[in-house]
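G., the chain you wanted modeled:
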Amino acid sequence: MDTGKFVGEAMRSQPKTGRVFDSENLRTEWEKACDACELGKRTKIVPKDENSFVWYKYKGLLLHDLRRSAVRNLRKAGVPETVIMKITGHKTAEVFRRYNIVSTDDVSAAMRSLELKVSSDSSVTVSAKRRRLLLTSRSK
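Predicted structure as tokens:
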């Protein structure tokens, strides 16, 4: 019996204990985890010559993708930009803005919020003509 194959199968069937990822092989472990849960695919690349080494080509969810998700989710939760930057390690607002993607849904939600504020709060000033346009567009 091939001992290596047996050990490999045993390792796959047993849950991993301790830290899931460590700083030593974070990317490799991440790729293995994503491959296992079908968020990515690792393809073994066998070298053509004896002096080269076997490596794995990976396509799928990258660890770095989570940084953008974190920025977006924290912003939607109302966390201040400076706090988000501290959490995600962004040093400048310029780089932070590259991760802080504003979607069309975000813009629509902001406009709906403004519209509600305008229609219910007399402290917000809007010209009479603009107010009529807002009210007639809402009634459609």
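The beta strands are 40-45, 55-60.

Shout if anything looks off.
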